[in-house]
Amino acid sequence: MAIQAILFDQDGVIIDTERDGHRVSFNLTFKEFGYDFEWGVEEYHELLQIAGGKERMKHYLHTKGFGKPVEPAEEDDLIKAMHKRKTALFVELIASGKLPLRPGVKRFMQEAIAAGLKIGICTTSNEEAAKALTTQVLKDIRLDIVLAGDIVKKKKPDPEIYNLALAKLGLKPTECIVIEDSRNGVLAAKAAQMHVVATTNPYTEKEDLHEADIVVTCLGDPDGERGQLKQGGAGLRYDGVLRVRDVVEYFGG
Fold first, then answer.
1. CB-based contacts of 211: which residues, under 8 Å, 6+ apart?
2. Which of 47, 78, 100, 152 could lock onto 160 through a cystine, CB 3.0 to 4.6 A?
């Protein structure tokens, strides 16, 4: 069946935001709220197995604590307030231009548009963070759908966000390719029965992504960084640059 759309995760796929974006913003927030702890690089990698920033903070509070008591009745309001501030700090970071797009992302999106495909973003990241990305960094890219944050009740690895995208676009799973970077994301897209290309980053390169159809280190740029094919893609035309026409042919003909 012919491919009609390509859907992108945001963090780690479009921009390598986790280590130097979200983690930094969380740590600045903790300091502003008077807490004397920080999430280290490796510790944050472990926390990324929990989808959603509010969920991540709540898990940390329940397992390791914030260093001083938090009354159960105040917990939800505190987490919401902290997440709101963290998001504002993250949006400022994106707007500063200090977090560049990953290799090949814009080229790949432009190729998809030129080929007449629909493109969209499906992320568990906060809606304001997604808006900052789409209206600033990707302002010249026409997106057909952007699903973010709490628009779904169950976050990845649950397939709810991808099932919602299919419903809104009026497409079948086999008509869509998903670009993900993490095991949770790959599992979500596969549970929705979609084709999956995983692009790894320093946080996900050692994760088990065997359910993905293709795994590359990045989408690649002809005049810049080229990727490496790590898994799948038998018969795929590939020279370190993943091109939309080749991926569409590989999955749908």
1. 186, 187, 190, 196
2. 152
The CATH number of residue 58's host domain is 1.10.150.240
- Low-confidence stretches of the chain (pLDDT beneath 50): none
Within 13 A of 60's CA, how many CA atoms are on the CB side?
27
What global pTM score does this model have?
A: 0.85
The strands making up 145-148's β-sheet, listed across from edge to edge, are 145-148, 118-123, 5-8, 176-180, 195-199, 214-216, 229-232
Report whether 157 contacts 51 (CB < 8 A): yes
Distance of CA 224 to the CA centre of its chain: 22
Domain boundary among 42, 63, 95: 95
**CA 145 – CA 51 distance, rounded (Å):** 21
Q: What is the pLDDT of residue 253?
A: 61
Give the residue from 32, 65, 95 where a domain finishes. 95
Mind telling me the catalytic residues?
Answer: 9, 11
Q: Are strands 229-232 and 214-216 parallel, antiparallel or unpaired?
A: antiparallel
Structural domain span for residue 200:
5-16+101-251
Residue 221: closest CA among 61, 109, 82: 109
Whose tokens are 């094919």? That residue is 229
Question: Which pLDDT tens digit goes with each residue over 106-140?
Answer: 999 999 999 999 999 999 888 888 888 899 889 99
> What is the distance between the terminal CA atoms of the chain, rounded to a whole angstrom?
7
Whole-angstrom distance, CA of residue 209 vs CA of residue 189: 12
123 in the same domain as 44: no
